[in-house]
Each structure stands twice: as C-alpha cells, then as structure tokens.
Design a protein that fits this description.
33% of the residues lie in helices and 16% in strands. The chain is an alpha+beta fold and 141 residues long. It is globular and about 45 Å long. Pfam families: DUF1178.
Length: 141
C-alpha cells in the first residue's frame, strides 16, 4: 500500500492509501476519490516527503488519529469484514469471475479477490461495476 498526500481544488489537504499509482488514477477517473472535507472530486496528488526508516520501532497508525478518525476507521474495517463475510473469495480469478457475472455466464453473487491494475482497467472498460475493498495493516499479518 502507498500513502499519497492529496489536495482538492478547495485547498483541503488529506491522505489516501492506494495499492499503487495506477489504483489511484483508476479510482480518480471513476470519481471514487473525494475530499473528506468538502466532497470535491477534483483531487490531485500533493508533494510529499519520502518515508525514511530510522530503525526505531513505529507506533500503530491509529495512535496518530483523533477519536473521530479512529471511529471512522473502525466502521470502515467492520464494513470491509462484512463485505468479505457475505461474498465468495475467488483469489486472482476476480476479473474473470466478475466478467462472467456481468455478462450472465454464471449466477450473480458477491465476490472478492485480487486483480492487477491492468485487469481493473479492463473491467472498467467492459462496464463491470466493482469497488476496491480497503486492506488494513492487521489484514496482512
């Protein structure tokens, strides 16, 4: 995951986490990147300093958030877990299965898995609706 410093056309600064730069660009083109302060979709990456490892033990990200942000993150994580509980995991066959469902080749059902940026672009071009599910630090342990 990559953290980008972002800014909207109303000069609100905020951060966003993306799998990679292509993921950011795809979500931006689909109108999924939005300023949390004003709701503007005119968002650009801002200049940011590179992360430098100091060898010191890092604290959890949640400690850097205020109570409102912690509550929002908890809600987002709960939603992510609920989405996964009510869907079939298809692994790296996500794009293939999503197309089969979209074109009526198999029964409609909730699915989740992984897709490359190229596969995601192809799904968008084919008109397949999907939404990235956030990956949280605890999900990778």
């Amino acid at each position: 995951m990559i953290r980008f410093s972002l800014a909207c056309d109303h000069d609100h600064d905020f951060e966003g986490w993306f799998r990679n730069n292509d993921d950011f660009e795809t979500q931006k083109k689909r109108g999924l990147v939005e300023c949390p302060a004003c709701g503007s979709h005119k968002v650009e990456k801002a200049l940011m300093a590179p992360a430098v490892s100091t060898g010191r033990k890092k604290q959890k990200i949640a400690l850097a958030m205020n109570a409102e942000q912690q509550a929002a993150m908890a809600q987002l994580k709960a939603l992510s877990e609920k989405l996964r509980e009510n869907a079939d995991y298809v692994g790296d066959k996500f794009a293939e299965e999503a197309r089969k469902i979209h074109f009526g080749e198999t029964d409609a059902r909730g699915i989740y898995g992984e897709a490359t940026a190229e596969e995601a672009r192809g799904l968008v071009e084919d008109g397949v609706e999907f939404l990235p599910i956030p990956v949280f630090p605890d999900d990778r342990n």
